């Protein structure tokens, strides 16, 4: 347990039975009455922002979170199986922790996962991933307006829009946060 005055932005706390990350800490000293902290927390599971008014000596629980690199092995239903790169221990974590980036994961990729007392609480995929185009529509001659896009399918079955010059067999870089084409990879 720690005092509210020891909270810093980025800490992960257990507040009202939920895991939250601290996004903002404001110290207030009103003209009358005691000083207090106005804190903003983001719920890790739901993403909801919660505001709290804490006395300077109020007790809060700062959680110990371990964040490490893991290797993504394979998908198993609603879970992703990952392996610790140093101990070779395998863990099953919910696919939902990766959010929309889960569909871009390829076997053997490195991912970052945070655990709080053996429970996975956060997972992050790489910002960019290289994928091979398995099918793309042929470009229509004369359709060369700037920014023209066509449909394409990647090696893991994702359909997306790519520029006209991308052909079947090309490798492209995709932003896993937005799901958009970034560039062609040589």
UniProtKB/TrEMBL annotation:
Pathway: Protein biosynthesis; polypeptide chain elongation. Its main location: cytoplasm. It holds the Pfam family EFP_N. The keyword Cytoplasm applies. It is found in: Cytoplasm. SMART domains: EFP, Elong-fact-P_C. GO terms for cellular component: cytosol. Transmembrane segments: none annotated. Residues 129-184 form the Elongation factor P C-terminal domain. The keyword Cytoplasm applies. Residues 67-121 form the Translation elongation factor P/YeiP central domain. GO terms for biological process: peptide biosynthetic process. InterPro entries: Elong-fact-P_C, NA-bd_OB-fold, Rib_uL2_dom2, Transl_elong_fac_P/YeiP, Transl_elong_KOW-like, Transl_elong_P/YeiP_cen, Transl_elongation_fac_P, Translation_prot_SH3-like_sf. Keywords: Cytoplasm, Elongation factor, Protein biosynthesis. Gene3D superfamilies: 2.30.30.30, Nucleic acid-binding proteins. GO terms for molecular function: translation elongation factor activity. PANTHER family: ELONGATION FACTOR P (PTHR30053), ELONGATION FACTOR P (EF-P) FAMILY PROTEIN (PTHR30053:SF12). Belongs to the elongation factor P family. Involved in peptide bond synthesis. Stimulates efficient translation and peptide-bond synthesis on native or reconstituted 70S ribosomes in vitro. Probably functions indirectly by altering the affinity of the ribosome for aminoacyl-tRNA, thus increasing their reactivity as acceptors for peptidyl transferase. This is Elongation factor P. It comes from Mucilaginibacter rubeus.
């Amino acid at each position: 347990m720690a005092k509210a005055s020891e909270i810093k932005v980025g800490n992960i706390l257990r507040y009202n039975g939920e895991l939250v990350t601290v996004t903002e800490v404001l110290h207030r000293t009103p003209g009358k009455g005691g000083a207090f902290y106005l804190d903003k927390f983001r719920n890790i599971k739901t993403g909801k922002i919660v505001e709290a008014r804490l006395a300077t000596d109020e007790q809060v629980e700062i959680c110990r979170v371990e964040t490490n690199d893991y290797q993504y092995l394979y998908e198993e239903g609603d879970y992703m199986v990952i392996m610790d790169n140093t101990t070779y221990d395998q863990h099953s974590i919910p696919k939902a922790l990766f959010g929309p980036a889960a569909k871009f994961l390829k076997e053997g990729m490195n991912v970052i996962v945070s655990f709080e007392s053996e429970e996975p609480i956060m997972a992050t995929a790489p910002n960019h991933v290289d994928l091979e185009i398995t099918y793309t529509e042929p470009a229509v001659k004369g359709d060369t307006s700037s920014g023209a896009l066509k449909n394409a399918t990647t090696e893991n079955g994702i359909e997306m829009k790519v520029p006209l010059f991308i052909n079947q067999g090309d490798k492209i870089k995709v932003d896993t946060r937005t799901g958009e084409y970034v560039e062609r990879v040589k």
